[in-house]
Amino acid sequence: MSKRVAVVVFPGSNCDADALAAAQAAGSDAYYVWHRDTDLRQADVVILPGGFSYGDYLRSGAIARFSPVMRAVEAHALGGGPVLGICNGFQILCEAGLLPGGLMRNAHLKFLSRPVRVRVEATDTPFTCLSTLGEELVLPIAHGDGRYVAAARTAAELEADARVVWRYVGDNPNGSTNDIAGICSVARNVVGIMPHPERRNEALLGGLDGARVFQSMEAGHATQHAGALRAVGGRHDGM
Amino acid sequence: MAPFRIEVRVMPRAALLDPQGQAVEHALHALGFPEVRQARVGKHLVLEVEAPTREDAAARARDMCDRLLANPVTEDYLLAVDGGGNGA
After folding, report:
1. Residues A159-177: tens digit of each pLDDT
2. Which chain B residues contact residue A104 at CB under 8 A?
3. Of A127, A139, A185, A218, which residue is least crowded by CB atoms under 10 Å?
4. What share of chain A is helix, strand, coil (3-state, %, to 5)?
5. Is 3.40.50.880 the CATH number for A4-232?
6. pLDDT tens digits for A76-100?
7. Cα B27 to chain center, whole Å?
8. Model-level pTM?
């Protein structure tokens, strides 16, 4: 049975249609959830797409994290449900405290929109389970605030627990700590990535490297419905 | 209740690279201000609030900073509260 994938749309999201199309291309039953909704409609997976939610006012992701839908996303994540934050979605996950650290202005200030090379360094996440360790992917970036930073102790924990999921290879475009391009939570179900896998999902668009992320999502173990997990945890109605 | 004016200064953590500050520093050097040793760029927010006392206004403002106005991972903040008849 196809995974039910909720793609959250914030005011200012602009990669929502690409994320939806990429999930559908992988065979998922993907649908949009508006940021004011409080029901993820039995989602197995939640995707927070890229864009400029709330105009990136104050800080990227700072206002979106208080959208009504985020309480449901937090409950889904705490119940073990997979969550993928792409670019602005990664920023929102950090602001929400679902991932550690934060994303700051690129070291060279410029907004960067170009392909970069990343290496898959963790394959035990719902979004990399079909990848092989050390596999290199070419994925596009499109961000101004992509420099991942974390306290020294947090960065050391990420490394020690193999929670760096993707790392820039050769060229670190934004000056991120330890060349980090994407990380996962302690429970490994919440994943954030700065590059855009949904934009590398067609041979016509330069390759299929990004499709691995969505194929992994669809292929991942569906042992328990995320909705059931939430009910078991007693958090079905939010936090 | 009395009106208070709260000014919040939010700065990137001193230990973190501040590329905006560096760009301003370089521009000032290029303009003939070599005496600039360092420039850092932050944000200044001004809030007009109503509160029973100055202490209440400050406590509420700290809560606003901790929850929204500053990111504790990347930024530090400083508050100044004016009004309520106890100072200018």
Report:
1. 999 999 999 999 999 999 9
2. 12, 16-17, 74
3. A185
4. 30, 25, 45
5. yes
6. 999 999 999 999 999 999 999 999 9
7. 23
8. 0.90
